[in-house]
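Notebook entry, structure prediction.
Reason for the run: the old model in the group folder had no record of what sequence produced it. Starting over properly, with the input documented here first.
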Amino acid sequence: MTTATAPAPRLVGPVKGGGLRGALAFEWTKLSSVRATWWNLAVGLILTVGFAAMVGMSASASAAKGVDVASPAPHAAAQAFLISQLTVVVLATLALTSEYASGSIRTTLQSVPARGRMLLAKTGVVVAVVAVAGFVFSVLASLTTAALMGEDGAYTGGDLFATALGASVYLGALAVMSIGIGTVLRSAAGTITTLIMVLLALPQLMTVVGAKWLETASEYMPSVAGTVLMTQDTRPYGSGTAVLVLLVWALAAAVAGHAVLRRRDA
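New structure, fully documented this time:
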């Protein structure tokens, strides 16, 4: 006695929703549905504008004492990113490491089995959110500082746009670094600590040691390149070199993260 086997159903038309586009949609849904994402952005905005107001008030007080503080307000407001950049680091880090902590990374990799595609999609979504946020933060910070500096903070539309674009690129690079290092370490605390060292502690330590080569090397840390981009300064190099420096740091972190992700279990 033989049993007939029903033929497998044939798919009609292409399967939609897969590939990189589907992975991007998947990552956006996860990122936008988590309350911590919006809390991080809100805190980042408050810190940026608040610190920018402090910069503006300090400049105004100094000017009243006869100190020359004349500087385009957007350039002065760039100092606000010294603190607010950390909220971006936290947002980007948690976008990945929280999945390792909860074990949901297994679900993510089952949904997007191609690990490189998953990492690319997650990085792309986080960078897009962070870059837009950086642009908005910079514009609002500049307007706040300008209102308090008065004539001493006179600026052009070009100054405002260039600083905002620089902030967008800088924070986007930090997001890539955060996700890359987070993929390697799989720890939120370890990743955030590492990035704080790279962004804040190391540049200071390298300049106080006294070794000339360390002083030169400190000029190529991400925070220095970010400052150059946001202030259009020509020291120690121009904007083109600053973009290249950030690209190298971001690419190194992304390649390291991808290499580790491919070789180990989730």
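Summary: The chain has eleven helices and no strands.
The old model has been moved to the deprecated folder.
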